[in-house]
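Support request from a user on the community tier.

User writes: "When I paste my structure tokens into the form, the page sometimes reloads and wipes my input. The last time it worked, I copied everything first. Here is what I submitted, just in case something in the input itself triggers the reload:"
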């Protein structure tokens, strides 16, 4: 009887799925074109998704020839960033860029979440229950305007999957700075030099978190020149532990 009911319920689910596909044909989460099956990403979009290379300078994350991996690269030998390790998931172009823009400008996160889920096996090898994630803080005015804190959302998705801890109060943004995307590399660095600080009560907050955390990751959605993550990491060095950084995507522009 139980087997019969299971078969019935399986048939029922299939019927419901067929009906749903008839009424709401599956579409690509990235370009929204209709698709024959519902795995979320059409072939054309999939071809444009590029994972950030694995052979990189471990310190700053720029791609390196395999024989030079894990670096440090020439630039890190001369002027290393504040963080000890940089990891990015995707190259910021094609369907990845479209998905991030749709998330940031229109609030639709389905395609970005597909990208995060696809990267989870690799993420789990670096981030676990002992990791503490700190999203790069946004200026308050921009957070009010968009109603979203994208780096914090990204941290939450990672925490839900890996069981790590995240805290968006420990690292703070100070004052208001113009949008980074409108500035040149040199202007970005000047703009960001004093943009981050640990919260006034960071000592007690850190005491509460330090017992659980064996690694700290500063997390952002897009890494462009690396200045934002460098200065956010520099402000976090007071915690007295090595700082890692993670971005969902990275532009190929060198810093
Ligand atoms: Zn597509
Ligand atoms: Zn480097």
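"...and here is what came back when it finally went through:"
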């Amino acid at each position: 009887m139980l087997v019969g009911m299971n078969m019935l319920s399986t048939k029922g689910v299939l019927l419901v799925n067929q009906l749903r596909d008839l009424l709401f044909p599956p579409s690509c989460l990235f370009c929204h074109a209709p698709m024959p099956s519902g795995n979320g990403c059409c072939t054309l979009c999939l071809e444009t998704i590029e994972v950030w290379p694995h052979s990189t300078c471990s310190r700053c994350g720029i791609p390196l020839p395999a024989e030079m991996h894990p670096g440090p690269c020439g630039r890190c030998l001369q002027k290393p960033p504040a963080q000890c390790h940089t990891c990015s998931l995707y190259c910021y172009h094609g369907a990845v860029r479209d998905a991030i823009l749709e998330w940031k400008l229109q609030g639709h996160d389905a395609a970005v979440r597909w990208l995060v889920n696809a990267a989870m096996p690799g993420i789990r090898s670096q981030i676990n229950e002992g990791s503490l994630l700190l999203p790069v803080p946004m200026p308050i005015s921009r957070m009010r305007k968009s109603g979203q804190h994208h780096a914090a959302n990204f941290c939450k998705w990672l925490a839900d999957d890996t069981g790590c801890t995240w805290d968006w109060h420990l690292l703070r943004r100070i004052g208001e700075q113009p949008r980074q995307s409108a500035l040149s590399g040199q202007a970005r660095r000047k703009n960001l030099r004093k943009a981050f600080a640990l919260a006034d009560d960071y000592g007690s907050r850190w005491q509460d978190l330090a017992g659980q955390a064996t690694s700290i990751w500063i997390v952002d959605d897009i890494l462009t020149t690396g200045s934002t993550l460098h200065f956010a990491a520099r402000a976090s060095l007071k915690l007295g532990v090595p700082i890692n950084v993670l971005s969902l995507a990275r532009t190929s522009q060198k810093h």
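Agent notes: The reload is a front-end session timeout and is unrelated to the input. The chain is about 40% helix and 15% strand. The chain has one domain: 44-250. Escalated to web team.
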